[in-house]
Amino acid sequence: MLKLLVSLLALLPAACLAMDCDKAMTTPDINECAYKDYQKADLALNEMYKRVLDAFKSSQDEANGYSTRADLVEAQRAWVKFRDANCNAVYDRWQQGTIRGLMRNACLKELTEQRTKQLDQQFLRSPDAPDNGP
User: Fold this and answer.
1) Taking Cα atoms as reference points, which of 104, 55, 53 lies closest to residue 75?
2) Which interval of the chain is the signal sequence (predicted)?
3) How far apart are CA 75 and CA 77, in angstroms?
């Protein structure tokens, strides 16, 4: 019986940490939810980036004198530096407010979602395919 009680108590903090982001009211909760949104966007970007790299893994472009994959890796590294520096600047701009975490996370999410869409459109879609996304 004691083991059961200890097990249930161990689960209590996890249950308390689960929050409904649609009902977040406090600054820490709003910031945490914004960070979770960014993490979801970052996961989607990483999955898209892997798909794009895989698309050029067995490509003939290097045999034809191109290095699409190498250029893409270099571009992605530069883009990550840009995104992080840009969103850090947003964070710094709001240094006097409690909204700064939310603003940085919103910036990270927005730029990350834009990059995910960009990778899809530029490297995975056929050049003559219509743009069906927002």
Assistant:
1) 53
2) 1-18
3) 5
Residue with tokens 């069906």: 132
- Would you call 133 helix, strand, or coil by DSSP? coil
Contact status, residue 105 vs residue 33, Cβ threshold 8 Å: no
Hey, how many other C-beta atoms are within 10 angstroms of the C-beta on 121? 13
How far is Cα 93 from Cα 101, in angstroms, rounded to an integer?
11
| SS3 assignment for 10-30 | HHHHHHHHCCCHHHCCCHHHH
Each residue of 58-84: pLDDT tens digit?
Answer: 656 666 667 888 899 999 999 999 999
The two structure tokens encoding residue 93: 């701009």
All domains of the chain in start order, with CATH: 26-124 (1.20.1270.180)
Instruction: Give the burial class of 105: count Cβ atoms within 10 A of its Cβ; 0-12 exposed, 13-18 middle, 19 or more buried.
Output: buried
- 91 close to 103: Cβ distance less than 8 angstroms: yes
**Entry pTM:** 0.77
